[in-house]
Design a protein that fits this description.
Layout lengths: L1 H9 L5 H8 L6 E5 L7 H4 L2 H6 L12 E5 L14 E4 L3 E11 L23 E10 L3 E10 L3 H10 L7 E4 L17 H4 L7 E4 L7 H9 L10 E7 L10 E6 L1
Parallel strand pairs: 1-2, 1-7, 2-6, 7-8
Antiparallel strand pairs: 3-4, 4-5, 5-6, 8-10, 9-10
């Protein structure tokens, strides 16, 4: 049910995403990064190239070949995606090679869950983005990515869970604004949906505790309730390299 999700987000568009999906015959493994903000480091850390030089305690057999980022993005002052260059330092270069506008997703934003429910001109937009990454250590590679500028909770409840879509990898890194702030939830509810989304690998900085926004999410979107599955850590990355909120662990879902 991974490809069906991407066709759903594509709608009736006959552009680059549809051509990609029509021609791609391998299984699609989607990595979802809720509350992503402007953080594209997951393209590096979830790559097979990274796993080769940082082997896990259990061999990873499935890697994402498509990414979905979600964040309702209320910041009107941001220049995010105004330029093709996303990130550049002495070792890593990340740029956008193509952008395609997809049909809007006008999902709710709730004042009990997010700080600025009015959103911005970006909120509700959905983009198909082709990203090029050049890394001194990992080499060069391209990734297809959909960025949905929506609140994470209704996206999960109304789109992912309601349609039984599969998400192979889920990230929980500095949840609550994707490194920038903007939310009242710690994303604790993400733990409850891992099994139902058929998640194989959960990547987290373990920065969650029951907050007011989490309580509101459970009340408004009742299918976000559930039980945390059993997990085993297979890799750890020190906090400063990615999160800043805690060491990041790769966890196999049992």
């Amino acid at each position: 049910m991974s490809k069906e999700l991407l066709y759903r987000l594509n709608g009736n568009n006959n552009g680059r995403l549809k051509k990609y999906l029509d021609s791609f015959n391998e299984p699609i493994n989607i990595a979802w990064y809720p509350s992503a903000g402007v953080d594209f480091r997951s393209l590096l850390y979830l790559s097979p190239e990274y796993a080769k030089i940082n082997p896990a305690t259990i061999e990873e057999k499935v890697f994402p070949n498509f990414f979905i980022f979600s964040d309702y993005y209320p910041w009107s002052y941001s220049t995010f995606l105004d330029y093709r260059l996303i990130y550049n330092d002495a070792r890593t270069f990340v740029s956008v090679t193509n952008i395609e506008e997809l049909p809007r997703l006008d999902l709710p934003t709730d004042h009990e869950i997010v700080d600025f429910p009015e959103g911005s001109s970006a909120t509700g937009r959905v983009l198909f983005i082709e990203v090029f990454v050049s890394s001194e250590k990992l080499g060069d590679f391209n990734y297809p990515l959909i960025y949905a500028f929506v609140e994470n909770e209704p996206f999960c409840s109304k789109i992912l869970l309601s349609n039984n879509y599969d998400i192979s990898h889920i990230m929980h890194i500095r949840y609550g604004g994707g490194l920038m702030g903007g939310g009242k939830s710690s994303g604790l509810w993400v733990l409850n949906v891992l099994k139902r989304l058929n998640c194989k690998l959960f990547i987290t900085d373990s920065h969650y505790a029951l907050q007011h926004g989490d309580k509101a999410a459970y009340r408004i979107y009742k299918n976000l309730k559930g039980k945390k599955p059993e997990m085993s850590v297979i890799r750890t990355l020190n906090s400063e390299s990615w999160s800043g909120h805690g060491d990041v662990t790769w966890n196999i879902i049992k």
